[in-house]
Amino acid sequence: MQTLIHRYQSVDGLQSFLQKIMPADNPVLLQVMAGDQHQNQVTAVLALIQKALPKIVIIGASTSGEIHQDQISDGELLLVFSVFEQTQLHPFYVADSTEATGHEVADQANQLGAKCTIVFGNPLTGQPQAFIDGLAQKS
């Protein structure tokens, strides 16, 4: 696996950065960490990435601070690309973070033989700890 991190500043800079990944015959996971970005800007950036890498799997979260190379910044768009040699990526989305939805995600992951799960949640709504507990009970 290769991990490439890009701090978004411009379309030209992103396009140049994407040349390092293309052609992407291998599975690519993009983790998006967005600070105080406008939704329209994030949507446009993701559309550009999806056009360049149509098979990419994208997950993400809003942040109150982005960490990159021992520096903490605020209000930036940080893009973390993981390029795998050989793996399968299966994103899941659940609207509610409850113990029951934790069980559902764990059951789906177990059926796929998942070796790793990355979870982003909203600590202000739902029951994130119950979700994690439900996930752990079935893992």
Indicate the low-confidence ranges by residue numbers: none
Total DSSP E strands:
6
Amount of beta strand? 15-25%
Cα(first) to Cα(last) distance is: 24 Å
Please tell me the overall pLDDT: 85
**Integer-rounded radius of gyration:** 16 Å
Strand order across the largest sheet: 1-6-2-3
The topology string of helices and strands comes to EHEHEEEEHH
Number of helices: 4
Instruction: Outline the biggest β-sheet.
Output: 4 strands, mixed
Helix content: 25-40%
Question: Your description of this structure?
Answer:
The protein is α+β, with helices and mostly antiparallel strands and 139 residues long. Helix content is 34%, strand content 23%. It is built from four helices and six strands. It has helices spanning 11-18, 39-52, 99-112, 128-138, and strands at residues 2-7, 28-34, 57-62, 66-68, 71-73, 77-83. The strands form two sheets. The protein has a four-stranded mixed beta sheet, with no helix packed on it. α3 packs parallel to α4. The longest helix is centred in the N-terminal third of the chain and has 14 residues, at 39-52. The protein is globular and about 45 Å long. The model has no long low-confidence stretch (mean pLDDT 85).
Sum this structure up briefly:
The protein is an alpha+beta fold and 139 residues long. Helices cover 34% and strands 23% of the residues.
